[in-house]
Amino acid sequence: MQLSYGGGCMELPEEEEADWLCPEPGGRGSHAAPGRVSSTTLGAQSGHNKTLPSGSTAHRVIVHTDLDCFYAQVEMIHNPELRDKPLGVQQKYLVVTCNYEARRLGIQKLMSVRDAKEKCPELVLVNGEDLTQYREMSYKVTELLEEFSPLVERLGFDENFVDITELVEKRLAQLQRDGCSKVSVSGHVYNNQTVNLHDVMHIRLIIGSQIAAEMREAMYNRLGLTGCAGVASNKLLSKLVSGTFKPNQQTVLLPESCQDLVGSLDHISKIPGIGYKTTKRLELLGLSSVRDLQTFSPVILAKELGVSMAQHIQKLSYGDDHSPVASSGPPQSLSDEDSFKKCSSEMEVKKKIEELLANLLDRISKDGRKPHTIRLTIRKFSSTNKWFSRESRQCPIPSHVIQKFGTGSSDVVAPLVGILMKLFRKMIKLEMPFHLTLLSVCFSNLKALPTLTKGSIGFYLTQSSPPSSSGKKMDDVPQVQVNSCSFVP
DNA sequence: TGGGGTTAT
DNA sequence: ATAACCC
């Protein structure tokens, strides 16, 4: 089967199609009570009816989406000439991602530019150190997915989790009302497992696969982006299964294949949530396969990692993950960083900080919210270094500086540079030689502007004393400090 | 090894 | 403030 799109065709695997006889079309209680997921009654096969309480975590349908080589795709949309060429996106000395043309020629993610050029001299490289266009496209994707369900959680710039449980229940109810005829899976079924049309969870997941296909179609038609999707009953599983058929395909996991999926991972470090450090500690305990972790003594594991961590990762090893899809909403922090070979004088530091700050101020003004905390992070050069060690200092932003954020051209730069240089001196003694390889500035504790509702104190204060638009001599005029009031949202 | 992000301690 | 995790 092929789905055709504006710009071409996308291959999708065959549909598995079958009749699904609806036990109880349109009958009793087909409308869900507000606040709860609609009851689903299974006719013929079940001896007991099942009801999902609102917020139940037991029968969720989760989609994980994962764009194909995201940065490279954005660059190709921007410059279609690059379409048919091997393309890599470069940050400093690294090719951080590349298109599939380049992958066919042996280029891999995070390969050094040296190795990449050696492997493939025709490789076209574009600089991807400025993330602006990627970030913008990334949020367009998240917003598109939010049209399906408000429960969308971002993971990096190119992945999202969507909890579509309620949407699935609606469609299920609609199918039953229609006296439904057919339900067919979209995309792959993990393990080629046979769908049991008398199993409601199978039906839910199949409906989920259709929704996932609609999501991918919308991403392609409206944004020009291709990607993978995985459908399963929790975040962990949806993420693991989305990667099983790689470029631009989707896969649904039925519950019976869960153990096969986690068992297919060749190492515990492949479980999302088990990172570098935990992997090392588990290896010291002699654990390397997922089965090793599943069958290891929980008591001894807890002695090494603490009860909480131990229970958490052991559950993960079974494919158990009850963590909710937490809507990301707008970002919690905005940061800008730059790495370099060497920075060793206060003047250079100040210059870099001013650059980072200028970019951040631009971004924060578009965001609309105001940061109440600022942080400076550095990385010191060290040959024997534990290689990624950063130090940071943060402080509140004075309220009189916060005021000046939204208001266009006001001079917020000087006081912030002052603050950042003070933070810098807390970490670096200027009388000692230093050698930095990274500087980063971060705005956090972002607060929405107070909403001026009729009746609020803020409303009348700003009505009687509107902000001056002169922008220059605001310091002479006593300003109403709306943001520092205790009634901000 | 980049340039971002998040949550837990 | 750092350390862990994710991409």
From TrEMBL:
Region annotation (Disordered) ranges: 20-56, 319-339
Alphabetized UniProt keyword annotations: DNA synthesis, Transferase
Signal peptide: none
GO molecular function, one term: DNA-directed DNA polymerase activity
Recorded GO CC terms: cytoplasmic ribonucleoprotein granule; nuclear speck
Biological processes, Gene Ontology terms: DNA repair; translesion synthesis
Ranges of residues in domain UmuC: 62-275
Composition-biased stretches (Polar residues): 37-56, 325-334
Family of this protein: Belongs to the DNA polymerase type-Y family.
Protein name, entry field: DNA polymerase iota
Full protein segment contained here: 1 to 489 of 763
